[in-house]
Specification:
By secondary structure, the chain is mostly helical. The chain is built from 5 helices and 2 strands, in the order ααββααα.
Length: 156
Amino acid sequence: MKNSFLAVWLAAGCTGEAPERPVPVADVQELMVSVLEPAAETYWDGVGEILTEEGVHQFRPLTEEDWTSLRNAAFVLAESGNLLMMDGRARDCGDWMAHSRTMVETGRLALDAVDRRNADAVFDAGAEVYYACRDCHARYAAETLRPSDPHSGNGR
């Protein structure tokens, strides 16, 4: 009797129709150019060093706005992995999904570094994001890798 009541109660919220599935607006190329790449660039530009004739210039997040921008970029990176797994975008159920899950995981790593306000960890997480991008591109978009990248197939 208890199970019957539970089943009726759970079914009361459903219309009997299948839930609506998400419908992609952007294809993978548009998602990369408009969503993922800008977020990655924002994240990578958050912490680093530039060597000039005058010496080494470090840049780090200094303001609350800087940290918020990095945090937003990390969220976009993590959620972009989920967006890449959607029907209509996923290229296959094997490597594509594994690479997409890696983007979710590295995005979470990036978010954790920001939440800890640890600039060195932000830098290190940025490297992990880069490796995740590079490894996926080596499999699915080798033409987008830098010629000097050993994963491009034409490394020097």
